[in-house]
Structure formats: C-alpha cells, structure tokens
Design brief:
two-stranded antiparallel ribbon, two-stranded antiparallel sheet
Length: about 400
C-alpha cells in the first residue's frame, strides 16, 4: 500500500520563485544550496545501498594487493554470495559481510543498456572475474620477482611498488577504473537517471500525488534520483554539502570528479555536476520533469567527460614517464602504472552516454579496438606500446568530445 503526504507550504515556496511574463506567472525553480530534502520534517534522501557497494569495491581493490588472500576470497568480495556457498566473511568490515548486496549484480546491469543485452552483461562481469582471479594466479606467485616483458612481478614507482602481469598490466587498476564505468557510471546515467526508470509504471503519477513507497517517506522517483547521487557522493561525510569534500571521499567517481574540477581546463566541472544533482532533485519535488531531464543530461555529459579526460591523461602521462632507455625494464614502473589506469578508464568509456541519446560515446567494439591497439596484440603488451600509438588513441578519444588532447593530457 502507498501512503500519501502533502508538502508543506514552506517547502513548496522554498523551491519556487516567480516571474511575471505577459501577466502569466511561471515557476522558476532555483538550485538549492544543499542536497537536503524533507517531507514532514524527515529527510527523504536515501542511498545506503550505493554506499555499501562503494565500500565493498574499496575493500576489493585493496585486497588485490594483499598476498595473504585466496582466489576464493577475492572472487567472493565481488560476488558476496555466502548464502549460496561462497567463502564466508570476505570483508574486513563485518557489516559488509551481512549485507544482502554485492558488486557483481550491479555491474553492466542498467535498464537502458543491458536489460536486453544479457550476453554482453555476462561478458563484462566475466572480464572482472578474470582480472581478479588472474591477480591471484599470475601476479601473487611472483610477488618478489622483478617484472620484465613476459614475466609478471613487481616494479618500483617512486616510493610505491606496482604489481603487474606479464604484459605490464596492473589488474587491480583495471578493476578499480573499470568499476568507475561498469558499476558507478552505468548505474547513474543508464539506469537511475533514465526516464525509463524514473517514469516506470506509475512513478510519475505517484510523484505528482506525493505518494510515497510503502513504509518510506520518499516517492520512488525521488529515491531513484538519490540512488544515482549515492554512486557519486555516497561516502561523503556530509552528503548535503558533498561538493565540499569531492575528490577525497573514495577511489572511484568521486575522486576523479574532484580531479576534473581541480583542472584549470575544466574548472567548475565538479560544481556543475553537484548543482545538476541538486536542481534535478528539486525539480522532482516541484514536478517539473523537463527540468529534471535537463539535469540528467548535464550529469551524463560531465561523467562521460571525466572518464574520457582521465583516459587521455593517463595515456599522455605514460608517454612522459616512458624511460628513454627502453631496454632498462626496471624503470618502467611509472609508465606502466599510468597505462594500467588508462586501460581501466578506456574500458569505462563503454558505459558513458551521449546526452539526448540512448547510445554510448563508444560501442563495445570501439572500446575493444582501442584496448587491442593499446595492448599491441603481441606477447609483451604494454611494454612495447609506442608514443605514436598513445597519441593516436588519445586523439581518437578526444575526437568525440569538445576538449583537446593537450587540455586532457596536461
């Protein structure tokens, strides 16, 4: 059963200012100062499931460098299927072990991109499991081996130690940056902010009537928008003012939106994104669905921009970090680390979405072709990538956006 609440006059007035035009009064919804929304004195903002999955992903990528972990434990951190026979209690945070949630189920699981594409969804999930297991089977046994072309192992990168496979790829970076697209971005732009999800069934009718979900204080539409918000800001200490700490809250979308906004060439990007989330949520409260959808388009554009910029940035930084003596394999640590991060962001391009479109910026085939060119098709993979290839791939990515390689790569 649904429950119906009436908005207080004060809440409604807070969302509107009015302007006169030919004696007609039209509402002008202003961007709220914070992401804080209430009904009858109770917060209607809820995104706990998204916070849980971000925390699970944080533990997983850290565990991929914990050589005491078993293959089963690492895979279970992705699947969290203890009830069906998985390895019990894979997470250090005990509350995560008891959650009926997991990472895998939300990877490549958006309503718009994958509900009718089960085969590709399954392949993408399998990619992550392959990377996770390969860390255990290929890299862990060579923990104390110096890496070189054809041999997995470790390399120094300043004060850090990188662990790579025989082709120079850090599997933990492929997983971490791949989840930015396959989990977070896909869920935000292709699922929760999709009109097919927001307006599913009687959602618009219920939102118009302030009909809340059973036992909840929010409407379904409000909650879906909040869940999208949670994948970006779900670990912020003060979500209502989440942009104040953007970039410092987790290792995924939040971190790199912070980096994008801190780049002079993309100044204001983080604030633009946060404002779009706030205004879109206010538009839902005010029943202005055109304005809501306009904000969703801004969010799609900014998240796609972030992923593409970081992909190019790491390709260009790898070129700078590449040792002048390419026979001295001990000096490859910084370059291979950048290439591994770039690999993950390139993989994430598949999950971006063109504004005013149901199409991604890059199809699966296009992403596969870029990855194949980056890896070179040979036995040694990233060890042998040329500066020309890095420039060509950077230009190929930038060509679909309004920024240059120079802007993204600086």
């Amino acid at each position: 059963m649904k429950r119906i609440y009436l908005f207080s006059l004060s809440l409604t007035m807070a969302l509107f200012s009015c302007k006169n035009s030919d004696d007609n009064v039209t509402p002008n919804i202003e961007t709220p100062a914070t992401y804080a929304f209430e009904r009858n004195g109770q917060s209607t903002v809820s995104f706990s499931g998204q916070t849980v999955r971000i925390l699970m992903a944080e533990e997983l990528i850290k565990a991929m460098k914990d050589f005491a972990k078993t293959d089963e434990q690492l895979i279970e951190m992705f699947r969290n299927q203890t009830a069906s026979g998985g390895d019990a209690n894979p997470f250090n945070n005990p509350s995560l072990n008891s959650e009926g949630k997991n990472i895998k189920g939300k990877v490549a699981a958006s309503q718009d991109f994958f509900s009718a594409n089960a085969s590709e969804s399954a392949q993408i999930k399998a990619d992550f499991e392959t990377w996770i297991s390969a860390q255990y089977t290929e890299v862990f046994p060579n923990q104390n081996t110096l890496a070189q072309p054809g041999t997995a192992g470790q390399l120094a990168d300043g004060n850090a130690v990188r662990y790579i496979n025989a082709k120079g790829l850090e599997y933990n970076q492929a997983v971490a940056k791949g989840l930015i697209g396959a989990l977070m971005t896909d869920q935000v732009v292709n699922h929760y902010l999709s009109t097919s999800r927001l307006d599913d069934g009687s959602n618009r009718e219920n939102n118009n009537a302030n009909t809340t979900d059973e036992g909840r204080v929010y409407t379904a539409m409000e909650h879906y928008w909040d869940e999208a918000f949670g994948y970006v800001y779900g670990t912020a200490p003060d979500p209502a003012n989440a942009n104040a700490t953007v970039g410092a809250n987790d290792s995924f979308v939040n971190k790199y939106i912070g980096k994008l906004g801190g780049d002079a060439d993309f100044a204001g990007a983080a604030q633009t994104l946060f404002d779009a989330f706030k205004l879109g949520r206010a538009a839902i409260v005010a029943k202005d669905y055109d304005l809501r959808d306009q904000q969703a388009e801004i969010i799609r554009e900014k998240l796609a921009e972030m992923i593409a910029v970081r992909a190019i940035y790491y390709l260009q930084q790898a070129k700078i970090a590449m040792p002048s003596d390419r026979t001295n394999f001990n000096l490859y640590g910084p370059a291979l680390h950048n290439l591994s991060e770039g690999y993950g962001f390139i993989y994430s391009l598949r999950f971006t979405r063109k504004p005013s479109s149901n199409a991604p910026y890059f199809t699966r085939q296009e992403v596969d072709e870029i990855v194949a060119e980056l890896m070179g098709g040979g036995a040694n993979g990233l060890w042998e990538v040329s500066n020309e290839t890095l420039d060509n791939l950077s230009e190929k990515i930038a060509a679909k956006f309004s920024f240059t390689v120079a802007q993204a790569g600086a």
